[in-house]
């Protein structure tokens, strides 16, 4: 895999997961200051990206973050629990994005048919699974082609919306309280979760110590620029309420005044490309991480064993879970849950980078800044969520508890099997 291919894998994952799925929800919290929220989330993601890039350069592996946790903490409970949380977050994100693909496809081709939405959701997951079975080279070709087309479409969208921008819609006087903007960072951070996918390319990149950081920074630089420009264009063209009302199709609606129905169709097609790209990148990462976890004994060995149809059984299990979530659960209500779980994972990873800073030649100041900002965002979000959405706060606790339970059960099974193995 090339640097461009690895970077585009990250860009494709981030753009598909974020800009189409989150504008409405982010607008409900941050109002017209969503662009500020995306910028702040990008700063946090870049600081964490520094930690992940340094770790990836020193410990290149298809296991990505899992490898870094094992290096810093060993095969203990902290690594195992964090790994389960990482897996949950990946499955939730992929399911949400696959649902977005189905929704856009149904709206564009089948008059928003619910049945067709579910069919298209299932089809995109199965097709992406087939691409992943084909191998890294196929993944790079598909991802690179999609991202090039997406960036071209977004460039046209930004130019069109910025030429029609109403500065009054973005006036600071319309912004909500600062605490709401900071709290919204935990939500918009969801749009950057895909940056970690780059860390899973270590085994496929030549000279990963040099090329993995380049791919990471390139992916984040492109994505932050795209997000901020699009957020300014959308909220400078539509009112906050219009963005909230249109939700996932807000970009298409913002393009319609200048480009008409063709603009709507173009952005809807872009959404299909972006979401399929994100599903592809996230499943690629899930396969690499579960294989590494199975190899280390942190996950049951079934996740790393070969499947009859190709790939690993970890891929098969992941696809089944994604399809169940996507077709049976209302995922829009748990976007913030996936985001906050990911923030907690990256906090543990940044601390791991600090512990290994001498081995990775990392700058302690940058790592500490990333850790501090992540803690602030998590704290503000937790307090706000407890006050405004206690059910979401309870779900946050429940998903951590589930990770602890699964680790406890597998740990006991592993311990019970150990004497027999000898």
Description:
With 422 residues, the chain is mainly α. The protein is 79% helix and 0% strand. The protein contains 15 helices and no strands. The chain has helices spanning 3-30, 34-58, 65-73, 77-109, 114-134, 136-163, 178-188, 208-235, 240-246, 250-296, 313-328, 335-355, 357-360, 364-388, 390-421.
Keywords:
422 residues, mainly alpha
Strand-helix topology:
Elements: H1 3-30, H2 34-58, H3 65-73, H4 77-109, H5 114-134, H6 136-163, H7 178-188, H8 208-235, H9 240-246, H10 250-296, H11 313-328, H12 335-355, H13 357-360, H14 364-388, H15 390-421
Helix pairs in contact: 1-4, 1-6, 1-7, 1-8, 1-9, 1-10, 2-7, 2-8, 2-12, 2-14, 3-4, 3-12, 4-5, 4-10, 4-11, 4-12, 4-15, 5-10, 5-11, 6-8, 6-10, 7-14, 10-11, 12-14, 12-15, 14-15
What's the total number of strands?
Answer: 0
Distance between the termini: 40 Å
Q: How much helical structure, as a percent, in the residues?
A: over 70%
Q: If you compute it from the alpha carbons, what radius of gyration comes out, rounded to the nearest whole angstrom?
A: 20 Å
How many helices? The count is 15
Strand count, sense and barrel status of the largest sheet are: none
General shape:
globular
Question: Strand percentage, roughly?
Answer: under 5%
Structural class: mainly alpha
How confident overall, as mean pLDDT?
Answer: 82
Task: Describe what is shown at a glance.
The chain has 422 residues and is mainly α. It is 79% helix and 0% strand.
